[in-house]
Amino acid sequence: MTLPSVQRVSDQRIDKVVPLMTPALLHHELPLDDDLSAAVLDGRRAVARVLDGEDDRLLVVVGPCSVHDPAAALEYADRLAETAARLADDLLIVMRVYFEKPRSTVGWKGLINDPSLDGSGDVNTGLRTARSLLLQVLRKGLPVGCEFLDPITPQYIADTVAWGAIGARTVESQVHRQLASGLSMPIGMKNRPDGSISTAVDSIRAAAVPHVFPGIDMSGTPAILHTRGNADCHLVLRGGGDGPNYGAEDVAGALALLEKAGLPQRLVVDASHANSGKDHNRQPLVIEDVAAQRKAGQKGIVGVMLESFLVPGRQDLDPTKSLVYGQSITDACMGWDTTVEVLESLASR
Would you call 301 helix, strand, or coil by DSSP? Predict the structure, then answer.
């Protein structure tokens, strides 16, 4: 029997197809109530005010590199909520709650893609777990920050997010620039892994204008999305192939590129990644330098990012060993005690 032509040429490398729940169903199961909706909108407005210079507080996006254990993330959120409230006069603290992990080659792709940490790829469970955690963090009074990697995922969780990021590996992608142009929160654009800042500046310009592109609506139906453009996109310096880019000269150069492009002169410094040489112990040193620049009058630095968890360092995901509770399985993070010291130091400047 001759197969229909579509079966002969399509999906030759697809092992299986599993139905994906719709965004509408997940929102019905785990709704964002009126109080939490108001909190998300307040968080977005607060971030935008800091970006626009209407609020002189420092934006601090802080939390695990990537969430793998919701229970540990919630304990972290409990501690951070108390600290955020105590330092609220000086810092606008947003909890980093990342679920998608971009990989240079291969590895664990994050809680949404693999919530069981075993390669089973139960994305439906991952989406439920992620949204549930986001709602619980919001109930603790913390705004939430996420990186958006897959262009479909935002329909499931973006209504809970006050600040978002487009990562260094995707900042050059037209798909992600289009996505950012339609997202409802401020978006940080990271410089490329090789250190290119102009690419991120181009991304900010592109995301600021309207786009038309295919996607899905809340019912999961294929749709053509028409965006308005996102004026709250901004630069994130994370270092690159040539080393750190958080120093005064680097910051001034980045702000000059923004000015030349006709964009607001504002940026966030990521104290991790290449800026710390991927050494979590160096993050406080980066922050000390950034704080000194702000104290000297550099108003272009409006925020910082920190990778932080309960236990310092990182661990490998090894199925033969039990995981250390509260320690990252991706990038190495500062421990909680160091995090508090850094936040208090920032608030006192």
Answer: strand
Q: What are the angstrom distances between the C-alpha of 29 and each of 33, 74, 156, 330?
A: 12, 20, 11, 30
- Do the Cβ atoms of 139 and 132 come closer than 8 Å? no
Q: Find tokens 């590996």 and name the residue.
A: 169
170: Cβ contacts below 8 Å, ≥ 6 apart = 102, 149, 176
Q: Count Cβ atoms below 10 Å from residue 183 Cβ, excluding itself.
A: 19
Helices and strands in the chain, H and E counts: 11, 10
Q: What is the pLDDT along the chain (349 residues), one digit of tens a residue?
A: 455 666 667 888 888 899 999 999 999 999 999 999 999 999 999 999 999 999 999 999 999 999 999 999 999 999 999 999 999 999 999 999 999 987 666 788 999 999 999 999 999 999 999 999 999 999 999 999 999 999 999 999 999 999 999 999 999 999 999 999 999 999 999 999 999 999 999 999 999 999 999 999 999 999 999 999 999 999 999 999 889 999 999 999 999 999 999 999 999 999 999 999 999 999 999 999 999 999 999 999 999 999 999 999 999 998 889 999 999 999 999 999 999 999 999 998 7
- Terminal Cα-to-Cα distance of the chain (whole angstroms): 77
Q: Which residues contact 151 (CB under 8 A, 6 or more apart)?
A: 175, 176, 179, 215
131, amino acid identity: R
Q: Please say whether the beta carbons of 348 and 295 come within 8 A.
A: no
Which amino acid is residue 103, in one-letter code?
R
pTM exceeds cut of 0.85: yes
Place of tokens 């965006």: 227
Give SS3 for 44.
Answer: helix
Asked if residue 338 lies in contact with residue 287, where contact means CB atoms within 8 angstroms, the answer is no
State how far the Cα of 268 lies from the Cα of 290, in Å rounded to an integer: 10
Q: Which of 316, 275, 333 is nearest to 64 (CA)?
A: 333
For the record, the structure tokens of 14 come out as: 């697809």
Domains parsed from the chain with CATH numbers: 22-348 (3.20.20.70)
Q: Given CA atoms 253, 47, 263, 54 in this order, what sign does their dihedral have?
A: negative
